[in-house]
Amino acid sequence: MLRGFYTAANGMIAQQRQQEAFANNISNANTPGYKADQTTLRAFPEMLMNQMAGKELPIQNKTYVPIQQPIGSLNTGVYVQEMIPNFNQGDIQETGIPTDFALVQRNLPDETGALFFTVQNEAGDVRYTRNGNFTVDGAGFLVTNEGYYVLDVNGEPIATNDKDFTVTNDGLLQTANGAIPLGFAYAADANTMVKEGNDLYTGDVEAVPADATFSVKQGFLERSNVDTLQAMTQMMESYRLFETNQRVLKAYDQSMEKAVSEIGRLV
């Protein structure tokens, strides 16, 4: 019976973590470039149960031989193994703002691949983002809304000519002082990328392959790929499953109460 407590409790914890993921997706439905989190549930290892018994041998000393009779397997519940961002391309929305860039993927060499802008966080480390909602700071550098420098192909901050610049489809930022290639990174398996907050990712990346085709659209933004209606439906389903596990846990609690108070009193 105690094992049933753990199984029901594990189910509640798993559904709670799913609720958190769905709520976070819905809250970021309007965040440019946001990639929806997908949760993966996994069962705890199954246990093989056996009936322990003994068999008396027909000999003078009446020797007993232990035997095991398989009963079957027992599952001890589920848990959220990991959260994986969904890197499907979001819809492209026109904003008309020259500092907004949309990174449009066309043909990539890997089915699970994804392209990113490169930025520099507050610690000076290189990070990656799909959010092209940039701006120009007081010193004339292209930055994210959090103030992180957007990097060029050489990993250096990009100095713009105020906001008097254009960006070509192949990612060349052109100012009166010359042309600066934007820095891009490619993840062959985007599922391995880890979210750090503020629309930043870290993980194993490489230079953009020669056979990858993409374009940069100035004055546009990639919208979040969150399906709000689907996320709300999944949230309701998860809540119902949480309630079901909660009722099972309550039933076990009532059974334990009877075992302690009523059966114990009879003995």
TrEMBL record:
Q: Give the NCBIfam families listed for this entry.
A: FlgEFG_subfam (TIGR03506)
The family note in this entry says: Belongs to the flagella basal body rod proteins family.
Domain Flagellar basal body rod protein N-terminal intervals:
5-35
> What would be one Gene Ontology cellular-component term for the protein?
bacterial-type flagellum basal body
Q: Outline the extent of the Flagellar basal-body/hook protein C-terminal domain.
A: 217-260
Taxonomic source organism: Virgibacillus pantothenticus
Localization annotation = Bacterial flagellum basal body
Pfam families associated with the record: Flg_bb_rod, Flg_bbr_C, LlgE_F_G_D1
SUPFAM superfamilies with a match to the protein in the record: Flagellar hook protein flgE
The organism's place on the tree of life at top rank: Bacteria
By what name is this protein known? Flagellar basal body rod protein FlgC
Q: Which GO terms describe its biological process?
A: bacterial-type flagellum-dependent swarming motility
Main location (coarse class): other
Q: Where is the Flagellar hook protein FlgE/F/G-like D1 domain?
A: 113-173
Question: Which keywords label this protein?
Answer: Bacterial flagellum, Cell projection, Cilium, Flagellum
